């Protein structure tokens, strides 16, 4: 049977082994925890860099457009660009010569004709006839006047004369007018000749 000393030695060795195993486990746990922290930190840094790159790309797209081509030189960008010179103006296209109008010499006349002539050239080179009330075939724009209505006779005017006849008791118009004009001339209030303002 082992003695007490041997048992103590065995127990001490077992305690040492347990302590060593515990320290190894703690070291492994600590290393795994540190590795997890490092991976989390790297993931956050990469995500921040990715988001920042996207924001910068959007800002670049908004602010800086593509360089203008030769066809679109006159755009909003008005800067000195030696590599993108303006295109030379094209030569003007040759215009066709104007075709002269055909002149109808048969319609020429020395006399001034103020009447709207039709296509009939029977009066070309002649003085136009005087206007008349009758409709002529040569002048379709001239309409016939109303000359065939009978004039009013005395029978038609008798009612009008009865209404306008002056009564004997009434004063004639000429006498009344003369009296009124005399009164107005004698009245000094109505004499405005001295107070007339002349404006130029």
From TrEMBL:
Ranges for region Disordered: 79-101
Superkingdom as given in the UniProt entry: Eukaryota
- TM stretches of this protein: 34-56
Entry keyword annotation includes Membrane: yes
Which keywords fit this entry according to its UniProt record? Membrane, Transmembrane, Transmembrane helix
**Listed Pro residues bias regions:** 84-99
Q: What is this protein called?
A: (Mediterranean fruit fly) hypothetical protein
